[in-house]
Design goal:
The protein is an alpha+beta fold. It has helices at 21-34, 135-138, 157-170, 178-196, 200-208, 210-226, 234-241, 245-253, 259-276, 285-291, 297-308, 312-317; strands spanning 9-12, 37-40, 48-55, 58-65, 68-72, 84-89, 93-97, 100-104, 109-113, 118-122, 126-133, 152-153. Strand 7 and strand 8 form a beta hairpin.
Length: 321
Amino acid sequence: MPSLPPQPLRVSTGMLPERDRMAAFREEFARQVLNMDVVDYSGGNPRIDITYLKLGPVAVGGTVTTPSEFIRDPRHFTDGADDFQLLLAHRPSRVHAAGRDLLLPSGSAVLLDYARLYRAGPVDDGEANNIAVPPALLKTLVAHPEDRAGREIRPGPALRLLDGYLASLLALDEAPPAELAELIGLHLIDLVAAVIGPTYDAREVIAERGLKAARQRAVLAEIARRFHDPGLDVDSVAGRIGLSRRVVQRLLEETGKSFTEHLTERRLERARAMLADPECSHLKVIEIALAAGFGDVSHFNRMFRRRFGESPSGMRAARPA
């Protein structure tokens, strides 16, 4: 696992002088930080954007790149790293690992072993998320994970949950506090184990810990994404994520708020932001209510006053010119 700062690290070849771009990226980042090599297949116009974030015992990353290949071979093994890396391909990718050659379709994944040679890169322009986990922790949940290296992992509920979780983490501007980062890291290890196949005894632990956290996060993300839809309800969120209505309700109960409370809070915050935005000053209050997802302006006015202590019109009138 590379040594990373606590804050998200974002590196791009676009930051480097054009003439020496790939050589500098290879030497200063790929070899020095990742301790691997990278080969450019773009035809002389490379673009590689990488985001890394350390979360307790794990490191997560996201890569967007023109055609290229990342290589870890015996030259790099002197660092002693023996972590496992789960690579989640968003575009078709070629992988050589554990003596196997794979053509990964979009949405699939593969487990890579830092202590063994591997080569991985997109077929064309590529995008992928990945997570590096310590073997000691993974082996408490998965028997002989090294035997799973180099095998295609097809899309499934656990893989989709993990990928969504990684995407939300890589979009953060600041790293979570240390204690929360440690907890998130353990949840991520649970999800990696769920993806590649946990032991029988570990299944209950994973379901209660990592899978529950990821499902809860997925429900909240779906509410945040679709709150402006006046028809959004528990059933549509549950169907979108692939959970039952009751499971969604239980997950939200553990946050201390019901589905309706989460949904209303999102809509009210959106309406307040629009009322305070000069660029929305041409909109009527009813138009703002509808844009925020409320279907009844009288209900909107009541909820707004209850939440913020004044009417929507009063808040708009108090806005500085």
